[in-house]
Amino acid sequence: MEKYDLKENMLDFIDRQKILSLIKDEKTPTKEEVRDIIKKSIEVSEALDLSDVAKLIKVNDKDMLEEIYQAAADVKKKVYDNRVVTFAPLYASNLCVNNCLYCGFRRDNKDIIRRTLSQKEIYEEARVLAGDIGHKRLIFVVGEHPASGADYIADSLKIIYSVKVKTKNGYGQIRRVNVNAAPMSVDDLKKIKAAGIGTFQVFQETYDKELYSRLHPKNTPKSDFNYRLYALHRAFEAGIDDVAIGALFGLGDWRFEVLGLVQHAKELERIFGIGPHTVSFPRLERASGSELVGTAVSNDDFKKLVAILRLSIPYSGIIVTCRETPEVIRSIIPFCTQRDASTKIGIGAYSERKNSQELNRQQFELGDTRKLDEVIGELADMGYITSFCTSGYRCGRTGDHIMKLLKSGVESRFCKLNAILTFREWLDDFASDEVKKKGEKLIEKELDEVLKDNKRFTPEMKKTLTTYYEKIRSGERDLSF
Ligand code: SAM
Ligand code: SF4
Questions:
Q1: 225 Cβ inside 6 Å of ligand 2
Q2: Hey, which of 125, 200, 218, 370 has its CA 20 to 30 A from 134?
Q3: Ligand 2 pocket: which of 142, 144, 223, 323 to mutate (most atoms <8 Å of CB)?
């Protein structure tokens, strides 16, 4: 690992001039060039070079785009099998000292009703998520404020992990809590590491430093571009080796953000030998008190950029959220590894059973408000198995260990086995009759595939799968590979 000093070496590793000149170059790549790049991606070793990513961005030919989409789906299947992991966000506080022009939580927004959940209220939210909906994985979200700093986050994680609710056939629990919060110091990160954080997620919003400074007013902590750029370096320093990157699409030129994300992934690979565990591409949504229009990314460009990200950082998980409409999600789900469902982003909205969207209580407007049951039914119709797997992190499959497993295609075996087991749990505890029927058909197919496959699955794995499966049917929970 290369040595570097966080204090003295906070250099901007995003090469703005290089990215701008790659975007400016108008040469369209040949079919052979595109196919060569796709071949590199399918080998799943490291993030693609920026010049290759820029070439993919320049493809506009319909047939070549179809090849890119097919390849993106193939890479996803190779690395993660045909499962989609599901999760829910838990918004705990909308207090914020920053003033990001695009966000409903911005300090100067007087329209929003401010609130920070107490630990008791957080427990209630987690109880509904784990006991009524059946989620096992959350992303804990807060604005940046002393009331919701590292101690608050650490206490909240502990409270969430303490929830255990009796369900129809077993019990419900939140087994993994990821965090999306402001960049922190190494000492603060150590606190949330000790409390059992899954992934630490920080979105750079825009990798274009000039645009960044226009959107994040001076004299707010978030105006420091480089401090944010090094948020995940500090996470590694604190021992959190599971980190996630993202950019807010629609603020500036989407091509710049794609190249910025890839450069960020390459930097983490270079310094720590590990890239981001996941990549997110939230698109700008309407927000209370914000009139920012941005540069809208069309649905066609959105599909293209997600496929390109899938190919460019082939080992990373790719997360789509309920910001998007069902139709848009359906168009990109073949490239994605995670999505949320039954999502509410109002503070306290799960336990208060708020069904309507109240813009004065939430950060932005959601595009998909369907229930988890409906989403799972739809995924099953499309041939995807929903997974509630959280075992990678808890079995020590994180950091460079998981990177090796992902790159070699070994992790996809665990993905398949754990999807079957956790899906079975959910079907027995939470599914409607209709979705249970669909899900059982899918499980039958998946089990059959595993039992017949002697190349990927050893006799031992098959035996353990069958034993665990039967135990889950009789009410045991949390058995995984
Ligand atoms: N406050 C922390 C921060 O800014 O890093 C984390 C929480 S913030 C609630 C999570 C993310 O929401 C932001 O990083 C941003 O990308 C996204 N976001 C903000 N405003 C948005 C909007 N209007 N539409 C879609 N996503 C938005
Ligand atoms: Fe605060 Fe984050 Fe919203 Fe900016 S994006 S105003 S930092 S909550």
A1: no
A2: 200
A3: 144
Handedness of CA 340, 344, 349, 352 (dihedral sign): negative
Which residue's alpha carbon is at the smallest distance from atom 4 of ligand 2? Answer: 100
- The sign of the dihedral angle between the CA atoms of 425, 374, 173, 429 is negative
As a whole number, the mean pLDDT across the chain is: 93
CA 279 to chain centroid: 6
Q: 182 CB under 6 A from ligand 1?
A: yes
The burial of 81, by beta-carbon neighbours within 10 Å (0-12 exposed, 13-18 middle, 19 or more buried), is given as buried
What residue's CA is closest to ligand 1, atom 6? 181
Tell me the ligand closest to 297's alpha carbon.
Answer: 1
Biggest CA pair distance of the chain: 62
Centroid of ligand 2 to alpha carbon of 104 (angstroms): 8
| Residue ranges of domains in the chain | 74-405, 409-473
Secondary structure E strands in 281-409 = 317-320, 338-340, 385-387
Give me the pLDDT at residue 2, please. 47
**0.90 surpassed by pTM:** yes
User: What digits encode the pLDDT tens for the residues 272-328?
Assistant: 989 999 999 999 988 888 777 667 899 999 999 999 999 999 999 999 999 999 999
Burial class (CB in 10 A: 0-12, 13-18, 19+), 185: middle
Atom number of ligand 1 nearest to Cα 144: 1
> Could you say which ligand is closest to the alpha carbon of residue 217?
2
143 lines ligand 2 (CB under 6 A): yes
What are 401-456's pLDDT values in tens digits?
A: 777 777 777 778 888 999 999 999 999 999 999 999 999 999 999 999 999 999 99
Give the Å distance between the CA of 103 and the centre of ligand 1. 6
CATH 3.20.20.70 fits 74-405, yes or no: yes
